[in-house]
Amino acid sequence: MWAAGLLFGRTRALKKILRVFSSMRLALILLGLIMLACVLGGIIPQGALLQDYQNVFGDTFSRVILFAGLDRVFTVWWFVLLIGLLLVNLFLCSLIRFPSTLKLYREGFNLSNCLLQKKPSFELSVPAGSSRDFLKKLGFKKPLFQTVDGVHYLYQSRNRLGVWGSWLSHLGMLVIVVGFALGQLLHVDTSIYGVPGQTKQVEGYDIAVQIDAFEIILRDDHTVEQYIADLTIHHLKDNTSVKGQSKVNHPLQAYGMSFLQNATGWAVKVSSFKGEELLDERIICAGESMELKDLNEDHTDLALVVHAFYPDVIMTPAGPRTKSPYLNNPAALFSLYYQGKLVGQDLAGMGYDIKASDYRFVLSSPQPYTLIQIVSDPSLPLVLAGGVLMLIGFFLAFYLRPQQVWVRYEEGRERVYGYTKKGADLFSDKAAMLLKEMNTTT
Amino acid sequence: MNYMQAETILFVITAIAYLASAVLYILFFALKKEKPGEIAGYVLLGAFIVHTVALIVRSIGAGRLPLSNQYEFATSFAWGIALSYLFFARKKKYRALGTFVAPVIFIIIGYAAMQSREVNELMPALQSNWLFIHVSTAIISYGSFGVAFGGSLMYLMRDRIHETEFTRHYFPDKERLDVLNYRIISFGFLFLTLVIVTGAIWAQKAWGRYWTWDPKETWSLVTWIIYAIYLHLRITRGWRGKKAAWFAVIGFICVIFTYIGVNTWIPSIHSYA
Hey, which residues 210-269 in chain A have their CB within 8 Å of chain B? Predict the structure, then answer.
């Protein structure tokens, strides 16, 4: 008795929990909270530093932002929890509603149910013998003749598929959220950069990217028409390779990964000398440095940092700028560090000596580099399928409204009834207009 | 005269015609006289035709569809509202809806007029067929929400309008207006979903990730959630009438913020749009 009571109590509690987690009320609360989080995440800059927030929001609010994780809303634990709860809600909702939707689809459309309908969408009288024609014009071309309790009827239903609309759209959303969550765990997003002739291995993968050529196509007004990188992707384990082109909007696909032409900048060849002896020679992209370490006791830790590159430099009150994207007057803004301390900063043209005691750096051969983004997301087909399911679901829900009509044969007249759960006024308007038309023509 | 000069003239005619239509609709509403409303309908239709020609001329002149900067999207947005209005409110009994929609069209055209009308070449990221699909679905969706916004304002004012023979003719009753707003929002919502889906597909091709929580994406999602809540509340909880109308108004404010606010105040990778 006691065990049965406990079991019954547990079952009841479980049912209650299930009801709460699958309820529309919870779905709406979760959607509202997710929306609020999105508003905050859409207004508060994400991933900034405390000082940046203090400049905009003041000290107290900035601390609240950091404490509540509003600086990284979309990855903070409470946002993930909200999405998780929504996922549970969508799953339970889809699971629970499936049998009833299937039952409605299979058994819900028949004359017996219609005859129980107390509030049909419309009820009209048509002249005897004209009901088939009326139904045909209403879009019901193949009504079936049936007899119930000695009364003759014509009956037809249509757009039954529409009952799946809401269920499919929820399933689609569920698939998208699952796909997105999987994508967060499984996706690859990394990059390499370099100039033609260089081959860079993708960190953590047996893939190397060889940059065969890189071209920036400019228009007459100096705006960029397209960035084109010719690449060879090598699979280091299989010893195979794929050649192709990567342009903006047209990534190269190889070995399950997409290679996107993402960004560009300038690189220069930096040669370092001690007297006339060449010590090092490398291609350095803007933002990178060349360090000369432990050369001798007196001159250790010398570093040259190339901050920016100007292909056609001009001096303005705001500092150096470039006049055009063409290499007419190239120069680089550099800083020189000795043992971590800044010892000089200036602009240097190509071929000029940047001197530091016995050492000198020479910049030459400026050329654009390309940044190739390498991405892969195995969950992509799932997310796409979810999107398609959701769209189909909305279409069915909004535009494939299940409708039923039946005609009751009475003495000297025929009464036409129609029923639809959604869009009843449109349905009845259409029927009334049709009747008016028929009456006018006769 | 080149294409751009022709487009400028057509744009000015369009703006004046939308203004005239808005004024006539207001007169129709205020004076409760049939004639200004009838003329307003024709003027709005004329403005829409000239507007369509202006967009075609700009497309020919620019060698692409006018969908890629603030001016082009604003003028296309206004066109989308006019198209949605002409489609959804084609029946005579919805004529008074023009009083609330025509001023919205004119305000957006006014916003377009304040933007740079220069024709810029497309940056590489925008050179995609997805631009047409993504932005044109946005125009249809936003246009529908614009009409629903007008319809909701009308709904909220409906109680204050004294019932006469005139209002019975040209003002839909509250239930019909409510249902009309629901239908327009359903249509806009379907297209907004399409906007987000097509945008995600394009983003995957252009940026390597279909969703990055960029402010534009996030605000589109906020708008989508608002209308999703509206549809759920309406279907399952029977939220109709004023509550639903307020939701539609808030939804459209969100649409405007997504379009103008995000571009103006929040740094975004969508800032060209």
Answer: 219, 221, 223-227, 247-251, 258, 260, 262
Which of B91, B119, B121, B176 should be substituted to probe chain A, the one whose Cβ sees the most A Cβ atoms within 10 Å?
Answer: B121
A390 in reach of chain B (CB within 8 A): yes
Q: Please judge whether A262 and B208 are an interchain contact, meaning their C-beta atoms are less than 8 angstroms apart.
A: yes
Measured between beta carbons, the chain A residues lying within 8 angstroms of B194 are 391
CA B222 to chain centre: 18
Q: ∠ CA(A191), CA(A194), CA(A198), 5° rounding? A: 115
Q: Which of B69, B195, B197, B255 to mutate to test the interface with A (most CBs of A within 10 A)?
A: B197
Print pLDDT tens along chain B (273 aa).
688 899 999 999 999 999 999 999 999 988 888 899 999 999 999 999 999 999 999 999 998 888 888 899 999 999 999 999 999 888 777 888 999 999 999 999 999 999 998 888 888 988 899 999 999 999 999 999 999 999 999 999 887 877 788 888 888 888 888 888 999 999 999 999 999 999 999 999 998 899 989 889 999 999 999 999 999 888 777 777 888 999 999 999 999 999 888 887 776 666 554
- Kindly report the CATH number that applies to the domain delimited by A108-159+401-441: 3.30.160
**0.90 exceeded by the pTM?**
no
CB B91 within 8 A of CB B56: no
- Which residues belong to CATH 2.60.200 in chain A? 266-369
Which CATH class name applies to A266-369?
A: mainly beta
Backbone angles phi, psi at A126, to 5 degrees: -120, 155
The complex's ipTM?
Answer: 0.89
Rounded to whole angstroms, how far apart are CA atoms B107 and B94? 21
